[in-house]
Amino acid sequence: MPEIVTKPRTKTQPKIERPKLYKVILLNDDFTPREFVVTVLKGEFKLSEDQARRVMITAHQRGVCVVAVFTRDVAETKATRATDAAKAKGYPLMFTTEPEE
Known about the structure:
Blueprint: E1 21-27, H1 34-45, H2 49-62, E2 64-71, H3 72-88, E3 94-99
Antiparallel strand pairs: 1-2, 1-3
Helix pairs in contact: 1-2, 1-3
């Protein structure tokens, strides 16, 4: 009579990774009014008046400034909406995204 061999089942647990984060970056330009930049930062990124002014001044002094860090979809959506808001008013204000290291 053949012998029956049973093997225990191994449970595999899927490896769950945190989503990669992306930085939203404000690029300085010499044409967009500072008050408009602050308004966009407050409206789209929910920054306080003080935070928005600090981000705007940093971008003005250094040429660029990281506004916030989000998952890829959120970062790209916010950057696009903020850039589109500036275009709608005729300003060259630009926001970009890049992966966080």
